[in-house]
Amino acid sequence: LEVTLDQMDLYTGPTENRMLKNVAAMMFSEHPEKFFPYSQSEIVIFPNGRMNEPDNFSETILHGSVPQLINNTLSYLKSNVIREFVVKLPDRPESLRYYNYPIPALEEAITNSWYHRDYTQYEPVTVTIEPDGITITSIPGPDRSIPLEAIKEGQMFRSRRYRNRRLGDFLKELDLTEGRSTGIPTIQSALKDNGSPKAEFLTDDLRSFTEVFIPVHKNIVASQNEPQNEPQNEPQNEPQKLTLLQIEILKLIKNNPQITRTQIADKTNKGLATVKRAIKDLSKLRYEGPSKGGHWVIDD
């Protein structure tokens, strides 16, 4: 064991008084919080938003080595938060696929939060999940060599100093990070490829914290913001925002005004209840005639 630790450059000090480096506990201890208090991942879910219902939340606390914390946090998000959406488009053979949150963006943001964390400060890495997005908070903020303008732009953080460089070497060996100032471009590229808005980065003048906001996919935001109880036949001041499902429904009805709700559900690969809700919210769509033998009418 001593030979292995020496080969991995995990010892420090003279031969007669050798001590393990901090990175050994970070990487290989199942309970690094014994050495670095609050080395834990706290996942907090506000189903209706922190501002709307601050007392309505659930919390999960994860422990383990840094690689375990990164992987277990991602596993939790994959199982409980991340969802894939598949939309069949009538004008092309391939389906439109997207996620509410692209996994590569979350993986990069969570890995960076542990890579650049200050292990002498007793604060956890916090992942806060709300309807409009996920916020990943770590302590402290970006190095002062990175201008505030670059942080606000959220394009690339070029630092002259790397915090926890040895930890970064291990994370690079595990293919969790590249350590070449590519983290922010990777996050933004993954969001763009998924059709999501750009990530936002926040800190203060003292660089006392880092917040990375990963927004939910824009189609999900549009669906959440649609009015549910407004009269459907009254004129609207602004054009109605349609979901991808509603757009697909209108195309199917234009091609076949006699199509039934059940047939729409089959063609869109959606549940019948989901299709009924989408149709109910379409203000310019109405059904004329008997339930059997009638037809759909789309008002201009």
How would you describe this protein?
- The protein is an alpha+beta fold.
- Helix content is 35%, strand content 17%.
- It contains 11 helices and 12 strands.
- The strands form 4 sheets. Strands 4-3-7-8-10-9 form a 6-stranded mixed β-sheet.
- A hairpin with a 7-residue loop joins strand 9 and strand 10 (210-215).
- The radius of gyration is 25 Å and the shape is elongated.
- The termini are far apart.
- Residues 227-238 have low confidence and may be disordered.
Strand order of the largest sheet: 4-3-7-8-10-9
Count of extended strands: 12
The gyration radius over C-alpha positions equals: 25 Å
What is the helix/strand order?
HEEHEEHEEHEEHHHEEHHHHEE
Helix content: 25-40%
Mean pLDDT: 83
Low-pLDDT stretches = 227-238
What gross morphology would you assign?
A: elongated
Question: Which secondary structure elements does this structure contain, and how are they paired or packed?
Answer:
Elements: H1 2-7, E1 11-12, E2 19-20, H2 22-28, E3 41-45, E4 58-62, H3 66-80, E5 84-87, E6 96-99, H4 103-115, E7 125-130, E8 133-138, H5 148-153, H6 165-173, H7 183-194, E9 200-202, E10 210-215, H8 218-225, H9 244-255, H10 261-268, H11 272-280, E11 285-288, E12 295-298
Parallel strand pairs: 3-7
Antiparallel strand pairs: 1-2, 3-4, 5-6, 7-8, 8-10, 9-10, 11-12
Helix pairs in contact: 3-4, 4-7, 10-11
